[in-house]
Write a structure and sequence with these properties.
318 residues, Rossmann fold, 2 domains, four-stranded parallel β-sheet, globular, binds aspartic acid, binds phosphoric acid mono(formamide)ester
């Protein structure tokens, strides 16, 4: 883990690269700031022009629906100018390096880069490259980190459950290749979740799982039993060299969240998924669309959480 290039000497957020290294006070400040962007009368997200005159560039080297769109909406609600950099149509295809690309864009007076990349640690490399003048926000790198997803998940849990200290939270599925799982574990441990469980087939548990400070379950019924929050993860086929899961039907039979299995959790348990979902592989449609699902609310909350991260980073730079 990079020693915290993401924090200034006085502990202010300069970049958001990963959750590790951010303490409970800072994480809570991000959630509280996100909360302040909601109009509680009608649930809408307010506009606040705190990024007026600033420019945010979205650089997605890997596809995205939610993260890219909500970063763009968040930046616009803060009144920033937003540059959507089209990786596929760029001079990268002529062999221009990432470094030259970033420095070229930086010369256009970009204040913040939102970066998603399939390789681990690219956002750290970018943060070291651009220096303190420009912020890097990690929108997901390899299987390493997806900090804003984990923050919006924590925000959603707090909104629906009121806190963290009394909760049993179960994260199910492809823990090994999921950057979301790693960031969720970091955020939920720091925020003080009482019992944090992970569950999945052996082939999809990371080698260092026993050192992660979580309960490890190899049976879905046990893992879901009496849980307050059940988070389902997509099988990250694009990151697997070989077929690490049996057929999708067999995976669903053993690891899919069905209405019957959900009954083992607390009666008021909530179901989450970062998306995109593989219906019928890790989650049944009846659960995904059912009354306990907060999956679409997670998406909405992502706008406010990304507004919070961007505004806190900018205020820390003044
Ligand atoms: N969208 C999330 C990510 O980019 C989760 C997923 O793709 O399964 O990591
Ligand atoms: N949850 C998430 O990161 O979704 P996208 O890949 O659509 O951005």
């Amino acid at each position: 883990m990079a020693n915290d290039v993401q924090l200034s000497a006085d502990g202010k957020l300069q970049h958001l690269l990963h959750i590790e290294g951010l303490d409970k006070t800072l994480l809570t400040q991000i959630l509280d700031t996100a909360e302040s962007f909601f109009n509680h009368a009608d649930g809408s997200i307010v506009k606040k022009p705190v990024l007026r005159g600033r420019t945010v560039a979205n650089l997605f080297f890997e596809d995205s629906t939610r993260t890219r769109s909500t970063f763009e909406l968040a930046a616009k609600k803060l009144d920033a100018d937003v540059l959507h950099f089209d990786v596929k149509g760029s001079a990268l295809s002529k062999g221009e390096s990432l470094k030259d690309t970033l420095q070229t864009l930086q010369a256009m007076h970009i204040d913040m880069f939102v970066i998603r990349h399939k390789e681990n640690e690219i956002p750290i490399y970018c943060a070291e490259l651009v220096g303190p003048r420009t912020a890097i926000l990690n929108a997901g790198d390899g299987n390493r980190a997806h900090p804003t997803q984990a923050l919006l998940d924590a925000f959603s849990i707090r909104k629906h459950k009121g806190g963290f200290e009394d909760l049993t939270v179960t994260i199910v599925g492809d823990i090994r290749f999921s950057r979301v799982a790693r960031s969720q574990i970091a955020v939920l441990k720091t925020l003080g979740v009482k019992t944090l469980r992970v569950a999945g087939p052996d082939s999809l548990l990371p080698e260092d799982v026993s050192a992660m400070g979580v309960e490890v379950h190899r049976n879905l019924d046990d893992a879901v039993s009496d849980a307050d929050v059940v988070i389902m993860l997509r099988v990250q086929k694009e990151r697997m060299d070989s077929d690490l899961i049996p057929t999708t039907d067999a995976y669903f039979a053993e690891w899919g969240l069905t209405p019957e299995r959900l009954k083992l959790a607390k009666a008021d348990a909530i179901v989450m998924h970062p998306g995109p979902m593989n219906r019928g592989i890790e989650i049944a449609s009846e659960v995904a669309d059912g009354p306990q699902s907060i999956i679409l609310d997670q998406v909405t909350n992502g706008i406010a959480v990304r507004m919070a991260v961007m505004s806190l980073i900018m205020s820390g730079r003044h």
